[in-house]
Amino acid sequence: MAAARTLVLAGYGMVGHRFLEAMVGRGQLGPDGPWRAVVVGEEPYAAYDRVSLSSYVDGLGADDLSLVGPGFHDTPGLVVHLDDRVDAVDTAARRVTTAQGRVVGYDALVLATGSVPFVPAIPGTDTPGVFVYRTIDDLEAIRMWAAGCRSGVVVGGGLLGLEAANALRILGVQATVVEFAPRLMPVQLDEGAAAVLQDRIEALGITVHTGCAASGVRAEGGQVVGLDVDGRDEPIQADLVVFAAGIRPRDDLARSAGLDVGERGGVVVDDGCATSAPDVYAIGECALHRGRVYGLVAPGYQMADVLAGRLSGRDDVAFTGADTSTKLKLLGVDVASVGDAHGTRTEGSRALVYTDPLAGDYRKVVVSNDGSRRVVGGILVGDLSAYPLLVQYARGTLETPERIDALIAPASPGADAATGAGVAALPPGAVVCSCNTVDAGTIRAAIQDGADDVGGIKAGTRAGTTCGSCLPLLADLLDDEHRKAGVAVRRTLCEHFDHTRQELFDIVRVKRIRSFAALLAEHGRGRGCEICKPAVASMFASTASGYILDGEQSTLQDTNDHFLANLQRDGTYSVVPRVPGGEITPDGLIVLGQVAQEFDLYTKITGAQRVDLFGARVDQLPAIWTRLVDAGFESGHAYGKALRTVKSCVGTTWCRYGVQDAVGLAIRLELRYRGLRAPHKIKSAVSGCARECAEAQGKDVGVIATERGWNLHVAGNGGMTPQHAVLLATDLDTETLVRHIDAFLMYYIRTADRLERTASWFNKLEGGIDHLRAVVVDDSLGLVDELVADMERHVAGYECEWKATLADPERLARFRVFVNADEPDPSLVYVRERGQRRPAFPHERP
Ligand SMILES: Cc1cc2nc3c(=O)[nH]c(=O)nc-3n(C[C@H](O)[C@H](O)[C@H](O)COP(=O)(O)OP(=O)(O)OC[C@H]3O[C@@H](n4cnc5c(N)ncnc54)[C@H](O)[C@@H]3O)c2cc1C
Ligand code: SF4
To answer: Cβ contacts of residue 74 below 8 Å, gap of 6+?
Structure first.
């Protein structure tokens, strides 16, 4: 047998690893394979998931991000050198030399060297406190530096820049984004979509400046203090600066070896990924194919597969270009750009646009203006439910439906029919997962062969294992195949758990599991995701009354919960102490006034009978709460998915119509259910007579006094989709009322989906009010004792989160006192209005 030929892989990133896997998969490496591979990777880590890099600051370690499966490096014929770099290529002698002095001869050389972040040539970029955003080590350096920082600027408002801004936010740093283009994500989004995205991002407390260029980094005492921006007199003050303004293909090695490179960079390759030098190939972000460098992982993976095919003797496989449709989650906002999103590649194209700025929703479909009226692309922000079909229409794998507008119109009866046959009509050849080039036929075959959940499809086909944007389509295909086979469809929480929310809730409760890691290890798989993490956090919070931010729980929580306060539009927080039943003593009112005066907080009585104090900086929260806790106030949970208030009218206490003690009951209910974590916020009210001054019928739990006792109404909703509460039981004595409310709330908490308010949960309840009454009032399932006992446990375990925080220095450290904490943040600009300060609007800023 001929001796194995040597393959050298320069660069061990995502695409390099994919190439190795493809070689192993084709039997090219391994005991009998014709190749041995020597891998040289510059980073100290083997290939890791760079797409999920931002999770590193959110608690994931380098091992969690690793792409290398157990035992992979033991593959015979595979040698891996990390922390070394290929420094020179001698194409004549067919060998490479590394930084550590290794000299390795090759029969084939594969360059998979990726990209470098682009840093504009402006003064001061080498100042300590200036970073780029590309590797685990970059993020580790940012994390270390951020520990003493209050504010940071990110240069670049594209995908990477917004990821970086989010990372700063997670690290507790107030972020400002500076973008050269007149809008965010200029490559993917149009003006309307970018405006919606910007609104949503600013609502999170991130400041955005578009249409301005960074012109220099300001330094004092040898470290960053701000960024100069063209057109602004004053620098933007910042303790750190992150450049995330784009990438440049890493072609230095190829250049010095005399290979052809593009005018604007990139190693020139043909459809077989071959460069201008014999037996030298390039794949991934360093490659320039037909004049194009791809900054996405899917095209790189396709190149890796093609090259592995070529090196195994297949001349018929070729890389002919890739679709750049992308779906991303940026700062919690879903964003997608599909095909010819700007309509610039389709002459005469027209766009259909639906936008709802209040809901933060933007949908656009670009349609050709020829006789065929084909869908050629689109943009979505907010609601991405149309994404899977939009991609298929734009690729031409699904025929454009009759009613194109139905694709972007808000959901309405008949919309499904109008968008066509949906997933059922996907032809077998339609590529569903573009990262891994898996078509609908392969996925259907895997399901027919026994893959009975999304995890099984992923394991069997690799679909959905990279960027994850096709996961909803996999779930739809699964449902479709199951339906066709007459199998009942199970609604499991997500791909990481084979259980429904209800089942997981029972597992958590019965087994008293208190950590996400333990739940995942015993009952799930993988690392968790945006769906299961908050859902499980809410289960923990609902099943035991432990401190909400203890241990890993803190990383599972929503933003507001991180600081036990509500983030406002200028990045400061509001403080809402509990005022049970709206009853407050004059002394209590005086303390609130004094605190507001001392910290110059804007003060407003809320619609729910509380006092909201606005404009507190994170580092001020502990001092404010010390004053409030000392005066007997406790957290009002305005930030939590929890009971907010029990509003009340004055009832028999003062009102001449009152028939029951509305205030007394409201206080009792509010104290009983305070801190109760739920799938969504819960509001409640008690009215002292049928005149209903407390508006109890617009609440999740509404109580109205009668001559004989209390009427209980449930599942009402104010807000965006108001819904009247339904009458559950009448003329109850107080003890029975409380028992019914206990059972109702616990039944809701245990069976609703995450972020589902009682009204939407109730609307989906089979059997409606009759079923609910049977369970809660008539105890038809024999559950009530258990539900009430659950509630008793909650009541017994309640502790004010702010009191607990102040009593524990470790917990308090989360609200660390920043460097220069006493100096006002110059990015916060206020105007005085009606005797108080409020944040300036953009037109009022200097
Ligand atoms: C924060 C972030 C978020 C992203 N999000 C997305 C996303 O949502 N969707 C998407 O499709 N893409 C995303 N990307 C882009 C995606 O990560 C890249 O497309 C992908 O990593 C490219 O793979 P690659 O192997 O070509 O390069 P890399 O993964 O960068 O690997 C190249 C490796 O080669 C090493 N190297 C370079 N030169 C040498 C040398 N001379 N010798 C030895 N080693 C060398 C480098 O150090 C690096 O480790 C994101 C990137 C970042 C940074
Ligand atoms: S609801 Fe009845 S008791 Fe309460 S304030 Fe109004 S009129 Fe008075």
So the answer is: none
pLDDT-based confidence at 614, cuts 50/70/90?
very high
Ligand 2 centre distance from Cα of residue 652 (Å): 8
Say if strands 709-714 and 726-732 run parallel, antiparallel, or are unpaired. Answer: antiparallel
Ligand 1 closest atom vs CA 295: 19
The string over 666-680, giving b where at least 16 C-beta atoms fall within 10 Å of a residue's C-beta and e elsewhere, is: bbbbbbbbbbbbbbb
By most ligand atoms within 8 Å of CB, the mutation choice from 609, 659, 689 for ligand 2 is 689
Specify the residue with its C-alpha closest to ligand 1, atom 37.
Answer: 113
Q: Is the CB of 41 under 6 A from ligand 1?
A: yes
Burial of 485 (0-12, 13-18, 19+ CB in 10 A): exposed
CA of 658 to the centre of ligand 2 (A): 5
Atom of ligand 1 nearest to the CA of 99: 42
For residue 395, which amino acid is it?
R
Q: How far apart are CA 567 and CA 205, in angstroms?
A: 7
CA–CA separation, 62 vs 82, rounded Å? 14
| SS3 of residue 123 by DSSP | coil
3 state SS of 385: coil
**Closest listed residue to residue 710, CA positions, set 771, 659, 784:** 659
Closest C-alpha to 561, from 624, 638, 628, 613: 638
pTM more than 0.85: no
Residue list, ligand 2 pocket, CB within 6 Å: 649-651, 655, 657-658, 662, 687-689, 691-693
pLDDT digits (tens, 9 = 90+) for 417-462: 333 345 676 778 777 887 777 888 899 999 888 887 777 888 888 8
The answer to whether 378 and 341 have CB atoms below 8 angstroms apart is yes
Distance 296 CA to ligand 1 centre (A): 9
Backbone φ/ψ region at 752: left (φ over 0), alpha (ψ -120 to 50), beta: beta
Mutate to test the pocket of ligand 1, among 17, 42, 85 (most ligand atoms within 8 A of CB): 42
CA 133 to chain centre: 18
